[in-house]
Amino acid sequence: MNVYASRILKNNPLPAIALYCCALFGLQNISVHAAEITSNWDGTDNGTAAWDLDANWDNDTWPRNFGGNNYLANIGNANGDRVITVPTISALWGLSVTQTATGGSTTLQLGGSVTLNGSVAAPATVGVTNTTGDLSRVVLELNAYTFTALNYGNYDNFGRGGYTVRSTGNQGGILAMRKWRDDLGAGIAVQDNVTVKLGTAERSEIDATKSTVSSSSTIQMTHTSVSNVEFWAHNNLTIGNLVIGASTNSAATRTIIAGTPLRVSGNVLINSYTGATGGAASILTLGNSAPQLYVGGDFTDSGADNIGYGDSAKTIVFNGGEENERILSTGRGVATSFRVGEDISTPGNIALGQNLTTTGGFSVLSMSTLNVQNHNLTAGTFTGSSSMTLTYTFGSANGHIQAGNLNLAEFDLNLIYDNGGWIDGDDLVLFNYSGVLTGTPELGEVFLPNNWAFDSLVSDLDSKSIYLSNVRVVPEPSVVLLGGLGISLLLLRRRRRQEISDIR
């Protein structure tokens, strides 16, 4: 008998004997199912120890799928602070970690990427059981690697939580799961530099009273099913960044945000996908139970196919503060409403990255700023609160707002000249509207480029437009002063000539 046969006989004799006999007697067509073998941690429960050391497991075999067998790793309670260094494992049938002692902890520190590949029939014990009430008692240290657990179906594997996941250093790590189910478990503390990828079209439930997600972390939906994944956020959940789809996927990812409004302190990115045509991209929709999406950073949508977000009762709210300008860029024509500023104490500051069209409303609250740049903003209704700031770029291309109904009060205005294309004395149209004008448009503070001027802000009810009249360049004061000095010198020279002539 060779060494390989000897090893599998030792670890699991009955299936191994069957395989050996099949090979010995030439019975190649007899099928034998792979055996499931559980390796129980037998190493230290205090200090650092290696996963890939046979002596640390009760059957003297460190767990990973090999030799035709599927291994499950079972790590029991630690009374001290235990760190297990884990190598690259391309396939492991299952992993369970239990922590009951409040004075102990277990950290799995990755030294390479790990993939759990158990089927939907894997034991329900796969995942973390942490009864201490402290998520820091079980830690998954990604260390810039990827931990994948996608195949466990109803058991939710690591999606039930009970642990902290982090990735030390500047490079991020990835936790890839089927779904995230706080309603079935203890929650997850997602710390810095972690991307949590939810990879199936199944419902996730994340509760801010159980789970925490750091501002530098990312939640990414990556499934490519034709079904929508429902992402239920509860109790004002705040996450770092939100990504819908992946540019390397072969189809769109469809996601509905539900539960209560989701708060994204960082950026929202909606990706296109390989082979997309006609402006198609992944799709984000706000459900009826979560009609607002709060965004503190940039909102970038790669789509241009007029699909997504929701109806005019759904609102994307930008609340990233007064000082930091964020980018709103979408080529999709939608029905969703947009609002710059959550309230007067939580303003927003948004610049358009391209033309924006919505049949819903667009509003800018007091103390908030909208920079149209040189793009066109088209909305069913535009509302500008008193003391908002609007910025327009003009010259070779002019920023412009087109609305159905227009509601304006006093606003501050900032103009930026792009160094081309403007004809002195032309009017600069800021707004056009096709419906009703409500309020009285007035200018507060005005910031103009050097040496530019206009006559007045005009509200023309006949043309339904609001514009700056006679926008033009004016001479610099120094030029006027020099011109006057030249005239004085010329007159003086002429007078002196006259005096000389009189003497003669």
Unreliable spans are: 1-32, 479-504
Structural class: mainly beta
The overall strand count is: 44
Q: With helices defined by DSSP (H or I, 4 residues minimum), what is the helix count?
A: 3
Radius of gyration: 33 Å
User: Quick one: biggest sheet?
Assistant: 15 strands, parallel
Distance between the termini: 136 Å
Biggest β-sheet: strands ordered side by side in the sheet: 5-8-11-13-15-18-21-24-27-29-32-34-36-38-41
Global shape: elongated
Mean pLDDT: 87
Strand content: 35-45%
Could you estimate the helical fraction of the residues in percent?
under 10%
Concise overview:
The protein is mainly β.
Quickly list its features.
504 residues; mainly beta; 15-stranded parallel sheet; 14-stranded mixed sheet; 3 helices; 42% strand; disordered N terminus; disordered C terminus
Chart the SSEs and their pairings:
Elements: H1 3-11, H2 13-25, E1 36-40, E2 47-50, E3 70-75, E4 81-86, E5 89-92, E6 94-99, E7 105-110, E8 114-116, E9 127-130, E10 138-141, E11 146-149, E12 161-166, E13 173-177, E14 187-190, E15 194-198, E16 204-207, E17 212-213, E18 218-221, E19 229-234, E20 238-239, E21 241-244, E22 254-259, E23 262-264, E24 268-270, E25 283-286, E26 292-295, E27 299-301, E28 315-318, E29 326-330, E30 333-334, E31 337-340, E32 349-352, E33 356-364, E34 369-373, E35 376-384, E36 388-394, E37 400-407, E38 410-417, E39 426-433, E40 437-438, E41 442-447, E42 452-453, E43 457-460, E44 465-473, H3 477-503
Parallel strand pairs: 1-3, 2-4, 3-6, 4-7, 5-8, 6-9, 7-10, 8-11, 10-12, 11-13, 12-14, 13-15, 14-17, 15-18, 16-19, 18-21, 19-22, 20-23, 21-24, 22-25, 23-26, 24-27, 26-28, 27-29, 28-31, 29-32, 30-33, 31-33, 32-34, 33-35, 34-36, 35-37, 36-38, 37-39, 37-40, 38-41
Antiparallel strand pairs: 39-44, 42-44, 43-44
